[in-house]
Specification:
elongated, nicotinate phosphoribosyltransferase, TIM Barrel, 445 residues, alpha/beta, 16 helices, seven-stranded antiparallel beta sheet
């Protein structure tokens, strides 16, 4: 069993609470919502991602005999409680923002309605999945905005925080608008286009750089991108120009070159001049090396003739904003609204929906957080994905989610597309929510 497939991939307090709920016979319907309290610095929006993995997790939720025996050996749990876990399955409902949806603080990303023990147990893993892919998709979306029309490829496997992170970051970045990934398994698992070039080691393994280029191109006659910065970047470009006629004679055309070090803008300008002067105007230039949205913006603002970018570490780890202040909170139990009132962490009670208004140009014009059933102007964003523990329909293909995400980015008001902080997008709170909060406060004072 893979680590992420076990129901024990959770925090201990989820299980200790379940023991206490069991002792008191508490298993009425609970409603939890997951939301982000505040945007990271310099962020104007977030992009929801990871729902598909959450749905898979919930559908497969169960504890094996071996896992229950391990819990028993810990001495923390009663026999009757452990016996009750044998038939544990997720039987609840899930409402969520479609993947690729742009969202803002206090708006529910996901709502789980289920018997208390089920809704409580899944908290940690649900947050783990949604949080990570949302962080990466939000960072990747900013790269897409910074480099419109440019080829963007996920190069982050080797510095991702583990195998699952590498796969899910490839998925999240593709969803957000990247063209593909260098991670081969992500191509198999998710159907994401894969891209690859060569490493410096390939060049170094040859006594002659030009021979390395020729050997690689002959092995990949229809898709050769050559790494030209192992020694002298411009000298390597000239070697390629000299080699090109011989390759053409064999029916081989080099597709591109990659630059991974130094002043990328200046090297790209010089290499472009060398290639064009040598008749290789159709050879693309790909750049990589510690890139993020800020570096992409700077390179393009400098007029660097770069056709595509390999973006890795800083995107896959969301280096400047590696976490979100997100929470999964109880909003209703046994038919009664619930609300946390902690200083700086108060929540809005009840089952909620988000309504989005757009202007005459189709741009986002403001959201309203309302109670479910209290319709507001605009389009409701949360949709139902599980009913009684089963999917309400087939999941959309990843390519379709990607198109939806692109439409969401296109609908962002211009100020929110900036890479620096802008005025906060309006998320109004409906009177019904405020009134319910007041009623809950009075009842629990």
């Amino acid at each position: 069993m893979a680590l992420g497939e076990s129901a024990l991939l959770t925090d201990l307090y989820e299980l200790t609470m379940l023991q206490a709920y069991h002792d008191r016979g508490m298993n009425a319907t609970a409603v939890f919502e997951l939301f982000v309290r505040a945007l990271p610095s310099r962020r104007n929006f977030l992009m929801a991602a990871g729902l598909e993995q959450v749905l898979d997790y919930l559908e497969q939720l169960r504890l094996s005999k071996e896992e229950i025996e391990w819990l028993a050996a810990s001495g923390r749990f009663s026999k009757s409680f452990l016996e009750s876990l044998a038939d544990l399955r997720f039987s609840g409902d899930v409402h969520a923002l479609p993947e690729g949806t742009v969202f803002f603080p206090d708006e529910p990303i996901l709502r789980i309605t289920a018997p208390l023990r089920e809704a409580q147990l899944v908290e940690s893993r649900v947050m783990n999945l949604l949080h990570y892919e949302t962080v990466v998709a939000s960072k990747a979306a900013r790269c897409v905005i910074a480099a419109p029309g440019k080829l963007l490829v996920d190069f982050g496997l080797r510095r991702a925080h583990g195998a699952e992170a590498a796969l899910l970051s490839a998925r999240a970045s593709y969803l957000a608008g990247f063209a593909g990934t260098a991670t081969v398994l992500a191509g198999l698992r998710f159907g994401i286009p894969t891209y690859g070039t060569m490493a410096h080691a390939f060049v170094q393994a040859h006594a002659d750089e030009a021979q390395a280029f020729e050997n690689f191109a002959c092995s990949h006659p229809g898709n050769a991108t050559l790494l030209i910065d192992t020694y002298d970047t411009e000298a390597a470009a000239r070697k390629l120009v000299a080699l090109a006629p011989r390759l053409r004679g064999q029916g081989i055309a080099v597709r591109g070159v990659r630059i991974d070090s130094g002043d990328l803008a200046e090297h790209a300008r010089r290499v472009r001049h060398i290639l064009d002067a040598g008749g290789l105007t159709d050879v693309n230039i790909l750049a990589s090396g510690n890139l993020d949205e800020y570096a992409l913006q700077a390179l393009l603002a400098a007029g660097a003739p770069i056709d595509g970018f390999g973006v890795g570490t800083r995107m896959n780890t969301s280096a400047d904003a590696p976490y979100l202040d997100c929470a999964y909170k109880l909003e209703e139990y046994a038919g009664q609204a619930r609300r946390k009132r902690s200083e700086g962490k108060a929540t809005w009670p009840g089952r909620k929906q988000v309504y989005r208004r757009t202007d005459s140009q189709g741009r986002m014009a403001g959201d309203t957080l309302s109670l479910e059933g209290d319709a507001q102007a605009g389009v409701p964003l949360l949709k139902q994905y599980l009913r009684g523990g089963r999917r309400t329909g087939e999941s959309p293909p990843l390519a379709e989610i990607r198109e939806y995400a692109a439409a969401q980015l296109a609908a962002l008001p211009a100020p929110l597309r900036a890479l620096d902080g802008a005025a906060r997008y309006e998320v109004a709170v409906a009177d019904s929510v405020v009134e319910l909060a007041g009623a809950v406060d009075r009842a629990t004072a």
